Amino acid sequence: MQYILPLIIAVVAAMVWLGLNALVLVYCERKFAGHIQRRPGPYEVGPHGALQPLIDGLKLMSKQLLTPDNADGFLFWLAPILSMIPVLVLFMPIPYGPVLTGMHVNLGLLLILAFSSFNGLAVILAGWASNNKWGVLGAARAVAQTVAYEIPLLLVVLTISFMTGSLDLTEITAQQSGHIGNWLIWKQPLAFLIFIVAMFGETNRAPFDLAEAESELTAGFHTEYSSMGFGLFFMAEYGYMVVICSICSVLFLGGFNGPIPGIEGWWWMLIKTYALLFVMIWARWTYPRVRFDQLLNINWKWLLPLATANLLVTALLIKL
Amino acid sequence: MGKFKEHVIQPILDCWSLIVGLKITGKYFCKPLITVHYPRQVIDDENLSTYGGHVELIGKPKDPAMPKCISCMMCVTNCPSNCLKLVKQKAPKPTPEQEAAMKAAKEAGEKVVKPKAPKNPLKFTYDYTLCSLCGTCIDNCPVKSLRYSNNMYWVATSREEMNIDLLARLKEQATEVSAPAPAPKAEAKPSAEKEA
């Protein structure tokens, strides 16, 4: 019981955190896009359009749930759930503060990498079960992308765990405590850059949002999803964004440690995560979408060799 | 070495363009907004003057209610959308004195002078729903009697409303200009409401 109760609280908190993030990020994204294009963004619902995401959510929920003809109903509806549920697990081992950690796991990093792979499965199920050729094509592209970008991400994470000698996110954070110089971004700048690029690829964010590619695939794997079927994929995408930015903060930016010794807390983690999220949004409204072969070339010809070289050099230096 | 430069060095150097891109959008993010928040705000007159709305007539400098138009039909003939309709004025019936003069001139073998039709059009209508705002009518008008209006906030609820009587509009504009300016109200009313 002493383990289950905190876990239940953590799951509920993660659900709330996930929903809240989706709302806030949708609003931020639209406002950010507006200001980059020098227009006000949403403005009519609530003060400065603050209630717009809530109303959008309500609209989305009030739509009819449709299953396409000859679609595999079970798999079709399993896919969005399978996309959404693992996100909650991903929040568990992330240390948001010295006490604010959902579940202390020795293999936290491994758990995150394992459960985040469920997204690929959800995507391929969604595309295949839709009985729609665009869906299948979109799913094939999305999976090719996710699988490809997972490899450099994994190699980068491995580099960090080589350096810290741990897969425990709390332990990795603890090793970066003290002043700003202890943050691993200074020791692994290349790994940080690779992680940032792979982060865009993993979360299907522009300029790597090839899975959706509305001009070619009319939204790809989730073409046939209406109402909250689409809503769950949408929320999961924002959930993955928050997770990956949190992990980036933990691995490279010292997690909940402040830049000066003595000031640590969840707010540092929040500031760092949201700063990274804003970089993701900023990049989305700056860069054009790349072509699919370019996307895979960036990964196989650049990120993978660089990540491997970085890992080998790190291993060599540690051994020496 | 050439291939190495092309495939390795150049892509790394090109990464700088990514930073430049972020710098540009970052700068734009911090700049003030340029879109006005309609209907709470409207565009100022300076910007409105560059707006090309529907076509309208230009009045004579001395008589603003009378168009400069000479009913030459160049606009109607050249309009690719066939959205302009012009009815010319007919020559007035000659008075008995004029008739007598004409008869006398005819008998004497002189040139008969018939009363001439006024040059200004009798009717000039314009269907905005057909217009593509190409400006051919404006370009072809020999007396520069047509221009784009600044009627930006005009809203119509039916096709019929989009059929504009250009002569009536010119008269309306002339009386608006000659009428004394209305007393300032407590709250500025958006011009959209006025136009609607």
UniProtKB/TrEMBL annotation, chain B:
Q: Which UniProt keywords apply?
A: 4Fe-4S, Iron, Iron-sulfur, Metal-binding, Repeat
**Which stretches does the entry tag as region Disordered?**
175-196
Give the record's GO CC terms: membrane
Q: Which Gene3D superfamilies match?
A: 3.30.70.3270
Biased composition of type Basic and acidic residues is found at 186-196
**Alphabetized InterPro entries for the sequence:** 4Fe4S_Fe-S-bd (IPR017896), 4Fe4S_Fe_S_CS (IPR017900), NADH_quinone_OxRdtase_chainI (IPR010226)
Q: Does the keyword Acyltransferase apply?
A: no
| Keyword Transmembrane helix applies | no
Q: Name one Pfam family in it.
A: Fer4_7
Q: Which part of the chain is the 4Fe-4S ferredoxin-type domain?
A: 59-89, 122-151
Q: Which PROSITE patterns match?
A: 4FE4S_FER_1, 4FE4S_FER_2
Q: Where are the bilayer-spanning segments? A: none
Q: Which GO terms describe its molecular function?
A: 4 iron, 4 sulfur cluster binding; metal ion binding; oxidoreductase activity, acting on NAD(P)H
Q: Which N-terminal stretch is annotated as signal sequence?
A: none
* Protein name in UniProt: 4Fe-4S dicluster domain-containing protein
